[in-house]
Structure formats: structure tokens, C-alpha cells
């Protein structure tokens, strides 16, 4: 049975969990997730989860960050090794779910490890969001209101709100009155950003109540705990049902219950926020993180000049001809070669890629070791400021607004590629537009 932790002020009192998912998630991130797990994909010169981790390091009393997911153990080994060197004050570990347990199921499964050291608060971050992570402000609200939970919220247009988890709140007290995940009709344009702060003594009992409710339903298996893991696999003769029954999601199964308490609050951020779901959404995420770094006068960025329109990140091992013009919102990866007179704008160019002389790359992602020929044009369509979608309708067809070349693709000299997604290892020898090239 779960022990309610005894508060001990001498211990570090906040732990953080970053939910990284697993290989069966991130399918909308293809073709890029075919070659790298989405949380490790680099935007603005760092893996997506590095941006989450960096935000967590700014919260003074966090000493431990737990990545929870169901990727193989080896996937995060190097990342954790490097991050532990960069942030020696932090203990960073990866805990692997034996199957996808859902955003709440993973937390509950590893509750003993999370509650070790008796943390009072638990920060939970979805790995697939890009934002300024105002964790300090969330902590402040948490303390002021003596909250059980604080959620980060942001306003979106009324038309798009129902694609997200929607929060109805009291604008004066900031109390969450209702929470509905992807409601059928409009209830609010304040949406869930996937960043939470929970009182540990409340979140685990809340998950346990949700599990109890489920076990009273017929045909569903009891939820596995860390100590009855094996017995939870007792056969029902239907593995798929068994798996589904173990999935428990914060969004669908827990947050609406928390709203029934009087101590669930929302911190509304006015700063940037985007989801990183589709591969194309890495481009706006890259732009937003680069702009943030530029505002913070980060030394990682290249100084503005006649050929550098900030913000631009160039890996130190990349070779960029001085006559090439780069920016704004460009990240150039390790060992990339950019030829004379090339133009790159609003794009990510990944490791070992080459852009030959006088080529133009805009609103695109150039995959690892891909080649863009001389005078070629690889371009997408700009995503309107504030838009949360990376698709557009062209000639009656829904296409990706960002052009993506997978790993080791080739674009011939003078070839034009527009609004295409190109799977790895393809050679494009003629002009293409609005296509998925398989
Ligand atoms: P939709 O947004 O509803 O389309 O679903 P999604 O699968 O794209 O993302 P979801 O909102 O379910 O996931 C939010 C975050 O939690 C992402 O960073 C996922 O990688 C992560 N996540 C999702 N499911 C699991 C899970 O079963 N276990 C763990 N550890 N993380 C998960």
C-alpha cells in the first residue's frame, strides 16, 4: 500500500519527472523519428529534452530528475552522461516502463522511486512541448495558494482549442473549475500546456482512486504495482485488452477529478508555447528556442553580420562559406557543409548534410547526411505566427507546410522541392511539390 510521505523540511522537496514516451509514440514525427527518438531530436542545437532539463535546473530545490518512458535503456545513456556532467548538482536517471503505461500510469508505477527522499512536490513535464517553462512562477502560485496541483495553461484561438485539453478557471482566484481533454464543443480557450506541479501527497492517491474506479469495471485487469508486476500479466486471453487496461492518462483520467478539489490552480503563461508533435513542428520550436537564446544573449549563437540574420546557431564543427547567407531561425548541425552563395532561412540542417553553392533552403529540415545540389531550392511555406498547425491546404490537398528531407536524401542540381516530406535514402532528380515521397 502507498505510504503517505511524512514532510521533512531538511530534504530537497521537489523532484521532476520528464515524460519521454516510447518508440510507439512520436509516429507523427516521422520520417525524423525513424532515425532518432523524438526526445533526442535537436532543436536550437540541443535535444528537445535538454530544453526541458535546463528549465528544471533553474528550480533551486530540485536535485533529481527522472526520465520516464518505454524506450530501451540504452537510448538515453549518452544524453544522461553528458547532462550529468553539465549539471553535476543533479541526479538524472531513466526509468523504463515495461510497456506504455500512459502519462499517469508511468508515474504511479515508479511511485516508490519518485517518493524516495520524501519530496513534497513533483514537477511533471511532457517532453514534447516547447515553451519558456515558467516553473518558478508555477512554484510561487503553488505556495501562495497552498495548492494540491498547478497546471500551466495558455490561450489559443477558439477554433483550435478543442484539439487540446481545455481548462475552465476562475480568472480571479486562478482556480481550475473544470478540465476536459479535447472536448466535443467549445468550453474554454485556455489549454493544457503539459507542465504540472503536484503535491506528492495528493497526486498518487488521486491516481490510485482512478485505478480503483477502473478495477470495479468488468473485464479489466487490476493495475500492476511495482511489487505485483508479474501477476498483473495473468492471462485474460486478450493481450490487447490487458495492455489497454493498464494505460492511465493524466489528461483523461486524473485532471478532471483534481478539478473537483478546491486546490487545483492554473498559471497562465503569456510567453511562447508549442507542441512538438509533427516533424514539421520542430521548425517553429527551433525558431522559438533560438529567439529565446538570442534575447538571453546566449554565447552559443553566431553574432549578427551582413550574412548572418539572427538568431542563428552553427555547430563549431560545421563549415559555412563566408558568402552564404543564414537566418533568421536557422540551426546548423555538426560537420554540415554550406557552399558559397547558399541561402538558408527558418530551417534545421542536420549532422553531415551538405548544401551546395547557390542553393536555397527555407522552412525546411534537411536530414542527416542529405545533399542539396547547386542552385536547388528546397522550401516549405511559412507557418503563420501563433498557428498551432503545421499543415496547409494547397490545391485542395492537405500538405505539410514544412519540407522535410529524411536521412541521406539527395536533391539534384537546380531541382525544386516544395512542401514535400521525403522518406530516407531518396534521390530527387525532378521538381516535386505537395507530395510525400516514399
Ligand atoms: P495526443 O496529444 O493526444 O495526440 O497524444 P500524444 O501521444 O501525441 O501525446 P500525449 O499527450 O499522450 O503525451 C504527452 C507526453 O507524454 C509526450 O511527451 C509523450 O511522449 C509522453 N507519453 C505519452 N504516453 C506515455 C506513456 O505511456 N509513458 C510515458 N512515460 N510517457 C508517455
TrEMBL record:
Gene3D superfamilies: Hexapeptide repeat proteins (2.160.10.10), Spore Coat Polysaccharide Biosynthesis Protein SpsA, Chain A (3.90.550.10)
E.C. designation(s): 2.7.7.13
Family: Belongs to the transferase hexapeptide repeat family.
Transferase in keyword set: yes
Pathway: Nucleotide-sugar biosynthesis; GDP-alpha-D-mannose biosynthesis; GDP-alpha-D-mannose from alpha-D-mannose 1-phosphate (GTP route): step 1/1
Protein name: Mannose-1-phosphate guanyltransferase
Organism per entry: Penicillium salamii
One Pfam family matching this protein: NTP_transferase
Catalytic activity: alpha-D-mannose 1-phosphate + GTP + H(+) = GDP-alpha-D-mannose + diphosphate
SUPFAM superfamilies given in the database record: Nucleotide-diphospho-sugar transferases, Trimeric LpxA-like enzymes
Record function comment: Involved in cell wall synthesis where it is required for glycosylation. Involved in cell cycle progression through cell-size checkpoint.
Domain Nucleotidyl transferase: 15-208
